[in-house]
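agent> fetching stored inputs for the flavin-adenine dinucleotide docking request
agent> found them:
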Amino acid sequence: MQSYDSGAAPLGDSIQKTLTDLEVTIEANRCLNCYDAPCMRACPTHIDVASFIGKIATGNLKGSARVIMDANPMGASCARVCPTEELCEGACVYKKDDSPIRIGDLQRYSIDWLMRNDDVKLFEPGTSTGKRVAIVGGGPAGLSAARDLRRFGHAVTIFDARDELNGLNTFGIVPFRLSLDVARWEAREVLKLGVDVRAGVRVGVDVAMDALVAEFDAVVIACGMGGVPKLGIPGEDLPGVWDALDFIERAKLGREVGDLGDRVVVIGAGNTAVDALTCAKRLGAERVTMFYRRGEEQMTAYEFEYEFAKQEGIEFRFYCAPLRVLGSTHVTGVEFVRTTIPPDSIKPAPVHVPGSEFLEPATAVISAIGQSRLTQTFDALGIAMDDGVVRVNDELQTSRPGVFAAGDCIFEKGMREAMVVEAAEQGKTAASSVDAYLRSGAHV
Ligand SMILES: Cc1cc2nc3c(=O)[nH]c(=O)nc-3n(C[C@H](O)[C@H](O)[C@H](O)COP(=O)(O)OP(=O)(O)OC[C@H]3O[C@@H](n4cnc5c(N)ncnc54)[C@H](O)[C@@H]3O)c2cc1C
Ligand code: SF4
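agent> prediction call returned; pasting tokens
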């Protein structure tokens, strides 16, 4: 049987446990088919959870996969990376007994069946409308938009700066949570509907936005966010200091990351930080420690990610801010200062505790303090933004008529991180809005 879940060696296999057939039967038959389906409401893509589970229970795996993929073109990756305890499973009525139905695992069971049955065709392109839509970025948001636009009958061209599609699903999320094979399969499923792809093309650099607007009837911007911002401290350009996204990508693709040494320091406390921590540990670093300038309660990583990192043997140090990276030809350590959060602070803003500086030895430092905004790209595209976030209305239309946006590029800064399932839903919404726009005759 073809496996889609092998992590790239030496990072190890998937951390998700595959349900046995017996477990699937038991789990699927627990579903109460609730009248108001809180799980469906809690899923950002509104998958009809009771329906797909009911179809699994009766052995109709094709029907089950169709229900999932119809609502969520990223159903394969979401079954692996959704924070289910905060979404569908968190809303399950069994949650009060602490044993919600394992919706994510059942979804994976169904989509795994689909992945093994490549000849099964779930969707067809719609009757051609003669309209052409350009999508800037072929990550989860762009692919979801492309899938639905094809079903509406519009011709679609995806422009992506990379040589492979599926954005952070391919290059960002660690392989033991989402393998390259799954990310690639998911992109192929969309391309099967007949999508033109121009890979290795950076819109705003290699091709101007005005050229796209002139050539296409509508445009969807789905270019995500940028790399990790600079720490803004002395020494951060020393060899041995990594950008977390670059580090994870190299590890995921099995490219050389060199010797990390035995003491790896990771700065940041979001999901990217946890992925970097667990990657470093699995690459053999003996001691891997996360440093965060706020407290445990302000961590933005999901609870299950944090628990997983603890099980992997990661150490955590809270209320520590980096002051400078030490070393002459290679990193040798980091100087930190302890921080505190004033009790009356509304938005927890840490302040340094004078005289509390300390030196932490390090053989490698990984900066994982979030992702920057692609402000230069948005400027080049001529669309308005607020603090680096593309400005959109309820229909996800940008300030430029005929230009829509979806995914991380419209994600507001908050305590939680952006999610694949939200990007998928926004891609669908953008596709519906583009369809309405094109059918309304608003464009010429
Ligand atoms: C390390 C890490 C771990 C994560 N873990 C999870 C998780 O566990 N669960 C979860 O739900 N979410 C997770 N996320 C978040 C999730 O990956 C994103 O929310 C999601 O990928 C956003 O999709 P997107 O399509 O908006 O952007 P992206 O996935 O970033 O895709 C954007 C695409 O646009 C392309 N592009 C950029 N600029 C241009 C340009 N100028 N021209 C053409 N193409 C361009 C890029 O090459 C890319 O392919 C994680 C993110 C990271 C970084
Ligand atoms: S897509 Fe995610 S949130 Fe929605 S039902 Fe599936 S696992 Fe749950």
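agent> quick read of the result: The chain has three domains: 21-116, 132-226+372-440, 241-367.
agent> awaiting further instructions
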